[in-house]
Each structure stands twice: as C-alpha cells, then as structure tokens.
Amino acid sequence: MTRLTTLLSLAAPLFLLAPLAPAAERADPAATVLNLSASTQREIANDQMIATLYVQDRQPQPGVLANRLNQLINRAQSDARGYKNVEVSSGSYNSWPAYNKSGKIDGWQGRAELKLKTRDMAQGSELIAKLQGYMLLEGVQFVVSDDARHAAEKAMIPEAIAALMEQAQIAAKALGKNTLNMHQLTIGNQMPPPVPLLMRSKTLAMAADAEVAQAEWQPGRSQLQLQVNGQLELR
Question: pTM here?
C-alpha cells in the first residue's frame, strides 16, 4: 500500500462512497481485494485573520472593576462598528479576588476579551492598531478561510482519486487482472494549523490611551492535504 507522509493532523472524512456491489457478488475466489491510499497537497495563501484583544484591570471593589471592564469593551465594540468587513464577537469574561501576603482579599482583578475575524487584511490591521491604544493583544493568527479551502478541495479530489487509480492499475497489471471494481472510497482533508504571529502579553495593568502604528502583517501560506482511501476488487 502506498501512502504519503502525513504532514498535518487528520480531520474527519468529507464523505464516504457506499459499496457498489453486494457482498455475495464479491465472493469470487479468483478476485483480489486491494486497499489503497493516496493523497495530494496544495499550498494555499492564508486569507483570513483572527485576533483576540483584551482588557485587564485591578480595582478595590468588584463593582468598580466590572464597570471599568464594561466601559472598555463597550468602547471597543463601538469602535469596531465602523469596520464593516470585520466580524466582532465577545470572548471570555472573568474576575477573581486578589490576595495580600496575609491571605486576605485586598482587591479584585478581571479580564474581558474581544475577538475579531476578517478576510479584509487592511481593515483588520487598522482596527487592531486602533484598539491597541487601550487594549492588549492576546494574539493574531492567519488561516485559510472555508471558501478558499472548499475551492481547493474541488480541484484536489480528482487529483487524489487519479493517483489512487493509478496505483490500482499498476497492481492489477502486476497481478494479471483485467477488471477493477471500486467498492468503497473515503475522502478526508487535513487542516493546516493556524499561523500565530503574536503571543499573549503578560502585562496586567492597562496603559493609558496611545497612538499605535499599524502593523504590516505577513499572512503567509498553509499546506492543505487531501487523502483518499479506497477498497477495490481486482478480477
């Protein structure tokens, strides 16, 4: 069985073709059952940006802390409304007590996140820079969008099946068989991991508003792999 090296974590099969012939018809003692695997790879430009920004603060009272976090998150959501091509969603929101050396609560800390997703790199970069004036950046990732992945898979499926059938024909010739019947075929993709550019900041206190230069992001490319597994009968 020929199989190319797996580069990325295996995802669930896209679909499964059911057997084309009943089991009784395949009980031919002269038939040979062949299990084969083949794959094809394609490098695709990362066309989607995903970012997480957050506010984090410490206050003497939980109510004061919540008010501060809410004000900043509301401000960020208001600023983001001007960027129509950027999808904005709320992330995690947590608060916890802060203890002094004696083990007593002497304040409260909290953190609230805002998540951004866009295929418009210009708008995404501009909004991130604007929000960084009063928020911290958890991280930025670049991935292949669903639309781009589906388009690539449409071209890759025939390539992978052709590679599998080529293997089957070579095996049939070597075994002196003249007939090929495909009984089962599974097709699955292997998703590339996201490309992280920035890691989480460890800063606790929020800085005062500041002008932040817009970063010149380089989204890079990802390698998409599609694999087919087939069971064939040679006669």
Answer: 0.73
Chain position carrying tokens 């084969």: 36
Q: Are 234 and 34 in contact (CB under 8 A)?
A: yes
Domain ranges of the chain: 13-45+146-191+225-234, 48-145+194-219
Let me know: does 128 contact 140? Beta carbons within 8 Å: yes
The residue whose two tokens read 């490309």 is 195
Give the CA angle between residues 89, 153, 120 to the nearest 5°. Answer: 35
User: What are 57's two structure tokens?
Assistant: 């603060």
E strand or H helix that includes residue 52:
strand 48-59
Single-letter amino acid code for the residue at 193: P
**Residue 158: left if φ>0, alpha if ψ -120 to 50, beta else—which one?**
alpha
**Residue 59 tokens, joined:** 């206050």
> 228 with 1: CB under 8 angstroms?
no
Please give the Cα distance from 220 to 147 (Å, whole number): 17
* Residue 11 phi, psi dihedral angles, 5° rounding: -100, 175
Closest C-alpha to 31, from 184, 185, 170, 231: 231
What is the chain's length?
A: 235
Q: What class does CATH assign to 48-145+194-219?
A: alpha beta
- Tens-place pLDDT, residues 125-179: 999 999 999 999 999 999 999 999 999 999 999 999 999 999 999 999 999 988 8
CA–CA distances in Å: residue 200 to residues 2, 4, 108, 117, 197: 42, 36, 21, 18, 10
Residue 77, number of CB atoms within 10 A of its CB: 13
